[in-house]
Specification:
206 residues, single chain, mainly beta, five-stranded antiparallel beta sheet, OB fold (Dihydrolipoamide Acetyltransferase, E2P)
């Protein structure tokens, strides 16, 4: 019969107890800061590409480009463009890939051979006028101020008050194929605080 000494410790049990004591407790795990693994992003750069299609089938602001990477591999894909940038087929464009994005972005046109179109404002409301109808703008008292109608020669804007003054803080520029100023009754006065410059191929007086 063997007698077990109660004062003698089992070395295996001691080792297991020490290992358990080294493990963090639940409270320690909750208090420990959470480590976040940041995804690896490609380094930013720029590339020259050629536009092969200027209209995406469903999305606005995207063009199809073809480019060759530094390894000599050719790529062709749809990429977004900067807002308001007009890109046409055959244009060489500059693409930039931000360091925090996986997508290339067209930021400019290097040599655009096609004519740049005028960006038309997007209408948000429309009012249809028949030939015998007019649009009136009135004051809070009901007095007519402005009338817009369709005449035989085109749209006509009439200021319905006898005396009208147009004021603005900046510069007033009027541009048209031809401009006619006519005083039905009375004089035409031009006043300036500086020089009055009249430029033209021929200036006719009377």
């Amino acid at each position: 019969m063997s007698v077990v000494d109660p004062t003698r410790r089992d070395p295996q049990a001691s080792t297991s107890s020490d290992e358990r004591s080294e493990e963090p407790t639940l409270a320690q795990l909750l208090d420990a800061p959470v480590g976040r693994h940041e995804p690896v992003r490609p380094a930013g750069g720029c590339m020259v590409a050629e536009c092969t299609d200027e209209r995406h089938p469903t999305l606005q602001g995207r063009v199809r480009v073809r480019f060759v990477d530094p390894a000599g591999r050719e790529h062709e894909s749809w990429v977004p463009t900067c807002h308001g940038l007009a890109v046409r087929i055959g244009d060489r464009v500059l693409m930039v890939q931000p360091a925090n994005s996986d997508e290339w972005i067209v930021t400019g046109v290097i040599d655009g051979f096609a004519a740049r179109p005028r960006v038309e404002p997007r209408p948000v409301a429309a009012l249809e006028l028949r030939p015998d109808e007019a649009l009136h703008v009135v004051s809070s008292a009901g007095e007519p101020l402005i009338e817009i109608s369709q005449q035989a020669g085109g749209p006509t804007v009439r200021l319905l008050r006898p005396d009208v003054r147009v004021e603005l803080a900046g510069k007033l520029a009027i541009s048209a194929e031809a401009i006619e100023l006519e005083a039905v009754r009375g004089q035409v006065k031009i006043k300036a605080s500086d020089d009055v410059v009249v430029q033209g191929e021929v200036v006719r007086l009377n």
